[in-house]
Design a protein that fits this description.
The chain is an alpha/beta fold. The chain contains 7 helices and 11 strands. The strands form 2 sheets. Strands 3-2-1-4-5-6-7-11 form an 8-stranded mixed beta sheet, sandwiched between helices. The protein starts with a strand and ends with a helix. The structure holds 5-O-phosphono-beta-D-ribofuranosylamine. The site of 5-O-phosphono-beta-D-ribofuranosylamine (GRF) has 14 residues, from helix 1, strand 5 and helix 6.
Length: 223
């Protein structure tokens, strides 16, 4: 199989893009990061893409009359660049069902909560309001229902006394950077796949348990 061509879709600061670009450059992810698509003018992710000298296209969603028209433009850009795997990294637009179905199994997202808790926005504030003792992030396959696709890998962090949504977000972000590259490496190598609505690794339906857990993997690495 020829080398996989990865696209990252992003809307904001781009710290996950930065981590993924570094992992592609080091070979930790065996793919060419062949396209960055950003829908927000002036987003920090555009600077990150420039710093890594990545092919980049700005497609402001406001230029399109409908979600479908925006999705079609994304699809054209992905096809133009020969993309075969897509990672959403802080991409703040909901993708339509047609787009998601076309990429099913080769489309993943990172979400800043321990899914299935807190799909959608304001995850850190909601975790604090609920009095949770731990928080985290989840990498999952994207399916048409928002933040509900089969989970691949999650990373946990403690919630500390006095945490604000911002301080908790910063702690979670550190774990996001570690889990996303790891999960992407597996998916791109074909070691994690989507079948029968579940994420599979080594013959095990890992999504049944909410995905694998970073701390067990890191403990195994050290052992
Ligand atoms: C991350 O917390 C991601 O999980 C969420 O949006 C944030 C994006 O951060 N969906 P960045 O743009 O990768 O720095």
């Amino acid at each position: 199989m020829s080398r996989r061509r990865l696209a990252v879709l992003t809307s904001g600061r781009g710290s996950n893009l930065d981590a993924i670009a570094a992992a592609c450059a080091s070979g930790a992810i065996d793919a060419d990061l062949a396209l960055v698509l950003c829908n927000v003018t002036g987003a920090g992710a555009l600077d990150v893409a420039a710093r890594h000298a990545l092919p980049c296209r700005l497609i402001p969603h406001g230029n399109f009359a409908s979600r479908d028209a925006f999705d079609r433009e994304l699809q054209v850009a992905l096809e133009d660049h020969g993309i075969d795997f897509v990672a959403l990294a802080g991409f703040m637009r909901i993708l339509g069902e047609g787009f998601v179905r076309a990429w099913e199994g080769t489309l993943v997202n990172i979400h800043p909560s321990l899914l299935p808790r807190y799909p959608g926005l304001h995850t850190h504030r909601r975790a604090l309001e609920a009095g949770d003792r731990e928080a985290g992030a989840t990498v999952h396959f994207v399916t048409p229902t928002l933040d509900a696709g089969p989970a691949i890998l999650r990373g946990r962090v403690p919630v500390l006394t006095g945490d604000s949504p911002a301080s908790l977000a910063e702690r979670v972000l550190g774990v996001e950077h570690r889990i996303y590259s790891r999960a992407l490496a597996w998916c791109i190598a074909g070691e994690v796949t989507l079948a029968q609505g579940k994420a599979w690794k080594d013959g095990v339906a890992i999504s049944d348990a909410g995905g694998l857990d970073l701390s067990s993997l890191e403990a195994a690495d050290e052992g």
